[in-house]
Amino acid sequence: LSNELDEVLSQVIVEMIDFYNIITVKRGLSQNKSHGDILQLLSDEVSISAKEFIYIVENQEIFVWFNKINPSLDSIFSTYELKMQDATISSSELEFLCDLLLYKTLDQGRYNVEGPLVLARYLLGCEFEVKNLRMIISALQNTIPFESIKERIRPHYGS
């Protein structure tokens, strides 16, 4: 499917699957799952093999992997890059980083008025909105101050 799509959309697909694999491996290893159990959950049809994802997480090379899929030197990623270098980045931070990277990648097409990027940006925005609303509702339900969840709100509305 990704071979027939626009280059930016192909990049987004690879980023999504790669991040899914990295996050799944990180969570699986933190739960002491076997490599076989983890491999069953991974997609092997992306930039590298499923076994390589396990190697990357086990050997704390997430930073090296991230720089390969994201060659930009955008300062917005610097906090996450430092945590990757220190091997202290959590799975939830990787999820947020994935959302941020997808947002930045699709933002390249913000001035397009037709084509698949318009729909992809709209759908990503809808997904972020759902995540944000769930977080806000959860905070209200559990009487958590908005300031404490503000930094976890997904990039949206041109921010």
Automatic annotation (TrEMBL):
InterPro entries xref list: ATPase_csu/dsu_sf, ATPase_V0-cplx_csu/dsu, V-type_ATPase_csu/dsu_dom_3
Top-level lineage group: Bacteria
Pfam families per record: vATP-synt_AC39
GO molecular function, one term: proton-transporting ATPase activity, rotational mechanism
Keywords: Ion transport, Transport
Protein name: V-type ATP synthase subunit C
Organism: Streptococcus pneumoniae
